[in-house]
Amino acid sequence: MAFVTTRYELSVDGRPVATEEQDIVYRSEPAGHPRRPAVSRPAPAQPPFESTWQLRLAVDPVLLFRFSALTYNGHRIHYDRPYATEVEGYPELVVHGPLLALLALDLPRVNAPVRRVSTLEYRLVRPTFVPDPVAALAHVDSDTVELVVGAEGAAPSLTATVHLLPAGRP
């Protein structure tokens, strides 16, 4: 396995306006050792909190293909089932991590439309697979929103914290 951290800094007129950091894990197989089918899906788990907000998303191969096209993500684990299952060893197509993050961000957008997100910090902790419905759950405590996203009834695939600006602040 190789771990890589990438950092992107965006600036306008020489002033930094956004920073993004990603930790990427690359895994390999020794030559001559074909990948075996992945172990079964994670056991159902309870959310780590009583949810204040909830959203659900049905995922299917068409949605994943379109999201791959939209984000220029050519990794075949998201749209080529034989490749995902036979070569990479997953039980099904893998739901994009950024799609899970967008679903997490949709919770404050839908439930607190007058508030703006000042920061989003998230961590991808396990894959989610088609055709499991995906649920996003949030617990709101003033200006902080704790979120989990993943297959319904399973341990979270994404954990996140969002900080909200007070209403009316740009």
Write a brief caption for the model.
This protein is an alpha+beta fold.
What is the count of structural domains? 1
CATH topology descriptor:
Thiol Ester Dehydrase, Chain A
Write down the Rg.
18 Å
Share of residues in helices: 10-25%
Write the H/E string, N to C: EEEHHHEEEE
Identify the CATH class: Alpha Beta
Average pLDDT, all residues: 84
Distance between the amino and carboxyl termini: 42 Å
CATH architecture: Roll
Taken as a percent bin, the fraction of beta residues is 25-35%
Number of strands: 7
Task: Please tell me what the overall shape is.
Answer: globular
CATH fourth-tier homologous superfamily: Hotdog Thioesterase
Low-confidence stretches: 36-44
Q: From the helix content, strand content and strand pairing, which structural class follows?
A: alpha+beta
Enumerate the strands of the largest sheet in spatial order, edge to edge or round the barrel.
3-5-6-7-4
